[in-house]
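Records of this kind hold a single protein each, on a pair of labelled lines. Below, a sample record shows both lines together.
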Amino acid sequence: MHTVWKGSISFGLVNIPVRMFTATEDRDIRFRQLHKECHTPIRYSKVCPTCDREVASDEIIKGYEYEKGNFVMIQDEDLDKIAPETKRAIEIVDFVQLSEIDPIYFDKSYYLSPQETGEKAYSLLRVALQQTGKIAIARITLRNKESLAVLRIYQNGMVLETIFYPDEVRSLAQVPALPQADAPLVESELAMAIQLVESMSRPFHPEQYQDTYRQHLQELITKKLEGKEVATAPSAPRANVIDLMQALKESLAQAEAPQELATKETNENRDIVERYPEPRPIAQNPKKKSKASTTAATTKLTPDTSTTSVTKALRRKKTQTPNAKS
């Protein structure tokens, strides 16, 4: 059993070192909510509806809503200033009768056991409570919150139970449609009711009470497991791998783009040259040069010439060739 708190019981000049353990546990069978299509557990995110994005933990602060939509900002430093003094002690302030406390006040139960040097004092307080029929009212600080508690005997040990403060218990007057306490009753009906209560009365043995719904639910789950009526959630994708692959694909595409463009331009130039080949030199008259020959001689193509310039020059050669022959 896991120790949830260590400290001491103090009353008067007596100090009893003790350890505290959670006495109860929630045994409800809980379900996860899954996506119907792929059986993946649904994830809940903290989203700001104004900014329309998920909010990280370091972006969240505390606020008290004193009226609808209006808040008082509370910083962690503000809470630290008013935090109760951390005491590793269960400080007993009074001793009362257990019958004086209505069960509605009880909240959560914890077992107490003595530490190595507290066995004698622990036993002394337990026997004193047993013989006087009293329980102790105490204060204890748990999780930076001061709580009211009672210390009482349970079998051969002691239990600490946190209890609600009076203003935490709602008034019965708030419950609607309650009958009057002095509502008239038929005597014969009351006698039969009392007789029924007496006939059903017996000593309390908690082990005879079972959570039948939980038992049936566990049987249902077991049957489905045996019948292989199960589903396995798909493995969560690794975001960093996806991002890396995407980055590699984009980098590869960028690297290939200039090469593809250069190949495209080269193919276009080759196609133009093949369709419009450069004409053969025409026999020149030594005394007189033709205009076409001069034009052909002075038209030179360089590697830096653009595709458009190449096309125009080649077309010009093709259209000028017949004139030269004539």
User: Anything to note?
Assistant: Residues 47-81 form one domain. Residues 282-306 have pLDDT under 50 and may be disordered. Helices lie at 76-82, 119-132, 187-199, 212-226, 239-275, 291-298, 307-325.
